[in-house]
Specification:
Chain B: Its main location: membrane. The complex is a heterodimer of chains A (339) and B (318). Chain A has 339 residues and is an all-alpha fold. In chain A, 74% of the residues lie in helices and 1% in strands. Chain A has one domain: Orthogonal Bundle (ABC transporter involved in vitamin B12 uptake, BtuC), CATH 1.10.3470. A two-stranded antiparallel ribbon of chain A has the order 1-2. Chain A starts with a helix and ends in a 7-residue tail after the last helix. In chain B, helix 3 packs parallel to helix 8, helix 4 packs parallel to helix 6 and helix 5 packs antiparallel against helix 6. Chain B is globular and about 55 Å long. Chain B starts with a helix and ends with a helix. Classes of the chains: A mainly alpha (339), B mainly alpha (318). The interface between A and B is large, with 55 and 58 residues.
């Protein structure tokens, strides 16, 4: 079956842009959005409590933290890398915010940004200048950041509470036009991210690096510097998301963020970004995040299903999405590796 | 491997190949000298028993990494096998174990097919199973911890033969089998060839897809064994805790053991040493009253050092 597909792919590539390619490209880029729309429509019809303002607000708030983390991950994955450390860095960001807030809100937000940005930069430096595999470097910082977190919280036993009236806590809990600040921040960051990826030199060089590091280097792009900033950005965003989440719950919870990197990666991949790098969109990631969160919400709405089904559905969905992607990308990109 | 000889000075290469044994040796000597009660049989057994589930999972991981892949699902497969076990214990121990192993094999077929036939990157293919597998385990177990009362299974977890815990014997046997598989069988050669250069293996007419699928199946079955062992040790089936982050520990053991992440080389003995080293590090730090946070940071540093030593290969020709 696959042999036939490959043959068609070759033929399609010869003819240029065929209808099949066009559809493949569309599904790749917009598939998650279509599925999201379908699920939302079906759930609206099926559950009275789904399409309510409260529920939408709820989903938006829950999505915002993962979305901010997934934004950084999108850029890293488009460049052909991966960042496994974001879950630990997210948790560390929250704990640092709760630690720093005792010296004022400004410290409360700057401390996590500086430290988490620093961890991201360390990742970036090891990947870009040390030429180490991103997978393993960020695996090491996953452990290291968790260790740091444990070290500053008396081995995880000390959960610091953030004062309710502090400015930073307000940033997590306050609302503007009925929508929480974290949601606004996520929306603004995604808008900036989309413009950066599509319209700026930085974004284009990230796409180029993901497409082919060698070609990017030969073109004279500052590959190492760009790569380092990508990971720095990913660390910064994870730290920010953690700080906001801590502000939202008004405490630096030590046990959050385990496996969060996997959610972020899943959202990015479901959003149509290729793990091989070189192609992807910020909007797709947003759709991917919302999709994961809506699935979770719908399973809660059904009520009779145990919440454990959520990960079964997410996993099955992820497998289905990447299988379809792999199938389509042969037609779309004609860039099959290996066999 | 010829490439390595060209790009790496012999000293670095030797450090990469034997560094893990040296580090393990130094750590053992340090403990013999400075840690009380280290050289007792009881302590030795404790250390070995604690590391067995990770070690067994790491054996499969080493094979998968040898094919230039990675299996993120091992932790979830462990949970799945732990969840399956009590469901079928009513039919006897052997059927229950067989079902658990079969579950692991099916997981392997799932990820292997996604990787080899559909052409998905190993990280994502096994990520899907990581996410879904634990959910499935929790659904099967109804999210609850189940006590194990089967005397044979309990004996498996806590019994010993000639002073050696049974689980350690199992791990040792599996190490020998996997080591033999890699070094002396056609399958082992094919695995290393596929990992070294997949396109060339295709051109050479090797059964690339079959080799990949079988590799993931072996990894799945070994993860299932690890889940059974963990359950027997815990005397309870706890699908929410068993195998949690085991994939990371297994990958760490393999990488620290000197198996390069870019395939074409499998070091089974190194993997064993890597797993023992990581276990001994945290044990040593705990014995000397250092917090577990320090253990994590030290492990992180060791991973970075291990990959730094492999760098010339990982950096490629660029």
């Amino acid at each position: 079956m696959t042999a036939v597909t490959e043959k068609t792919a070759v033929v399609a590539a010869d003819k240029g842009m065929t209808k099949r390619e066009w559809i493949a490209g569309l599904v790749q880029r917009r598939g998650s959005l279509v599925v999201l729309a379908l699920i939302v429509i079906v759930s609206t019809v099926a559950f009275d409590s789904f399409a309510t303002v409260d529920n939408a607000r709820n989903i938006a708030m829950q999505s915002s933290f993962l979305a901010i983390v997934a934004l950084g991950m999108t850029f890293v994955i488009i460049s052909g890398g991966i960042d496994l450390s974001v879950g630990s860095v997210y948790a560390l960001g929250g704990v640092l915010a709760a630690l720093g807030i005792q010296w004022g809100s400004l410290t409360g937000i700057l401390l996590p940004l500086v430290v988490c940005g620093g961890i991201g930069m360390l990742n970036g430096a090891l990947v870009a200048y040390g030429r180490l595999a991103p997978f393993i470097v960020t695996l090491a910082t996953l452990l290291g950041a968790r260790g740091l977190l444990l070290a500053i919280t008396d081995e995880g036993s000390n959960t610091r509470v953030m004062p309710r009236d502090a400015l930073l806590t307000q940033l997590g809990q306050g609302t503007l036009l009925g929508v929480g600040y974290p949601v606004w921040i996520a929306v603004v960051l995604f808008a900036v991210g989309a413009v950066m990826l599509q319209r700026t030199r930085f974004g284009h060089s990230v796409l180029a690096i993901g497409g082919s590091v060698e070609a990017a280097r030969l073109m004279g792009l500052p590959v190492a510097r760009r790569t380092m900033w990508l990971y720095t950005g990913s660390g910064l965003l994870a730290g920010l998301a953690g700080a906001l989440a801590a502000a939202y719950s008004a405490s630096g919870v030590t046990i959050v963020g385990v496996g969060f990197e996997l959610d972020a990666i899943a959202a990015v991949v479901i959003g149509g970004t290729l793990l091989t790098g070189g192609a992807g969109t910020v909007g797709g990631t947003l759709a991917g995040v919302l999709l994961l969160m809506v699935i979770q919400n719908v399973i809660n709405q059904i009520g009779t299903l145990s919440s454990h089904y959520q990960s079964v559905v997410s996993g099955a969905f992820l497998a289905a999405v990447v299988a379809i992607q792999a199938y389509l990308s042969r037609a779309h990109l004609g860039r099959e590796r290996g066999t | 491997m010829a490439e390595t000889t060209v790009t790496q000075p012999p000293a670095t290469r030797r450090l990469r190949d034997y560094g893990v044994y040296a580090a393990l040796g130094i750590l053992v000597l340090y403990n013999l000298a400075f840690t009380e009660n280290f050289a007792t049989l009881a302590n030795l057994n404790t250390q070995l028993v604690q590391v067995t589930p990770i070690l067994i999972a790491a054996l499969g991981m080493a094979l998968v990494i040898g094919t230039e892949g990675v299996d993120l699902s091992v932790g979830s497969v462990m949970a799945l096998s732990a969840a399956l076990l009590p469901l079928y214990l009513g039919y006897g121990l052997m059927p229950a174990i067989l079902v658990a192993l079969l579950g692991g094999a099916l997981c392997g077929i799932f990820s292997g097919t996604l990787v080899a036939v559909v052409g998905i990157q190993p990280i994502v293919a096994t990520l899907a199973l990581l996410v879904g597998g634990r959910g499935l385990a929790l659904v099967l177990a109804d999210g609850r911890l189940k006590d194990i009362r089967n005397p044979m299974l309990l004996e498996l977890g806590s019994g010993s033969v000639l002073g050696i815990p049974i689980v350690v014997l199992i791990a040792a046997c599996l190490t020998l089998v996997v080591g033999f598989l890699v070094r002396y069988t056609t399958f082992g050669r094919q695995l290393v060839a596929v990992g070294g250069n997949r396109s060339a293996s295709v051109l050479a007419g090797l059964p690339v897809r079959r080799t990949l699928i079988v590799t993931y199946v072996i990894s799945g079955v070994l993860a299932a064994v690890a889940g059974i062992v963990a359950t027997a040790r815990l005397t309870a089936s706890d699908p929410s805790a068993i195998g949690q982050l085991a994939e990371l520990s297994a990958i760490t053991a393999v990488v620290v053991g000197g198996t390069p992440l870019n395939g074409g080389r499998v070091r089974i003995l190194g993997t064993v040493a890597g797993a023992l080293l990581m276990q001994l590090i945290s044990a040593t730090l705990i014995k000397h009253n250092l917090p577990s946070s320090a253990a994590l940071v030290v492990q992180a540093a060791i991973i970075v050092v291990a990959v730094l030593l492999q760098r010339p290969r990982l950096g490629g020709g660029g």
